[in-house]
Amino acid sequence: ERKCVHLAASLDEHGGELVPPRSLGYDTLVIAVGSITNDFGTQGAAEHCICLDTREQAERFHRQLLGHYMRAHAGEDQQSTISVAIVGAGATGVELAAELHHAARELAAYGLDRIRPEDVHITLIEAGPRVLPALPERISQPVHQTLRDLGVTVLTDAPVSAVTAEGLHTRDGNFVPASLKVW
Predict the structure, then answer these.
(1) How far apart, in Å, are the Cα atoms of 86 and each of 114, 120, 152?
(2) Closest CA to 107 of 66, 141, 136
(3) What is the DSSP letter of 99?
(4) Most buried by CB count within 10 Å: which residue of 16, 29, 54, 125?
(5) Digits of tens for pLDDT over the chain (183 positions)?
(6) Are 64 and 77 in contact (CB under 8 A)?
(7) Rounded distance, CA 104 to CA 114, Å?
(8) Who's near 9: CB < 8 A, 6+ residues apart?
(9) Nearest of 22, 26, 87 to residue 52 by alpha carbon
(10) Phi and psi at residue 90, in whole multiples of 5°?
(11) Beta pairing class for 17-19 and 180-182
């Protein structure tokens, strides 16, 4: 009735009060409780893709990525490239693509250089007409160009129709090979 949210005190790790209890007024209240990834029933997505809804899933992706690097560094993997396909060019997909580019450079600097940064092929796949579809086009355009400048392949208007162990098929008939697939 009063359009007011009452917040408990914020505490530090020792239980000391950082900010006392308080109340905040509002005109409109939006409660965002999070979500889980929707693969829209795409054939093979649940079996072959990693979602990033939980810490455990993110850690699984991290382990798999490092596994590719470690096998290549030990000479056990004859493949000289790592192909990563990311489905969804929202904020998470865009950030992941940029961070993977950065990680490839960092891993090479730490001596895992049998796979050079330019041998990490990152493809960002978006069903809609542009990256960052929830943001204004004046933001998505330069982000798209920055991703391209980093060497990320960006596919728009490319809904994924099926996922296999080898990669992803788009509705327009293209195939994106990928050893690691993130939805």
Answers:
(1) 23, 13, 10
(2) 66
(3) H
(4) 125
(5) 899 999 999 999 999 999 999 999 999 999 887 788 999 999 999 999 999 999 999 999 999 998 888 887 777 655 678 899 999 999 999 999 999 999 998 888 887 777 888 889 999 999 999 999 999 999 999 999 999 999 999 999 999 999 999 999 999 999 999 999 999
(6) no
(7) 11
(8) 17, 18, 19, 20, 21
(9) 87
(10) -80, -165
(11) unpaired
Closest by alpha carbon to 160, among 60, 93, 81?
93
Helix (H, G, I), strand (E, B), or coil: what is residue 90? coil
Q: How far apart, in whole angstroms, are the C-alpha atoms of residue 72 and residue 81?
A: 9
Query: Which stretches does DSSP call E strand in 38-99?
Result: 82-87
For 155, the token pair is 């596919």
Q: List Cβ<8 Å contacts ≥24 apart for 43-48.
A: 43/161, 43/162, 43/163, 44/162, 44/163, 44/164, 45/87, 45/160, 45/163, 45/183, 47/163, 48/163, 48/164, 48/165, 48/181
3-state SS, one letter per residue, for 110-148: CCCCCCCHHHEEEEEECCCCCCCCCCCHHHHHHHHHHHH
Distances (CA, A) of 129 to 88, 134, 137, 169: 11, 11, 10, 18
Question: What is d(CA 106, CA 179) in angstroms, rounded to the nearest whole number?
Answer: 20
Report pTM.
Answer: 0.80
Tokens representing 70 are 């470690």
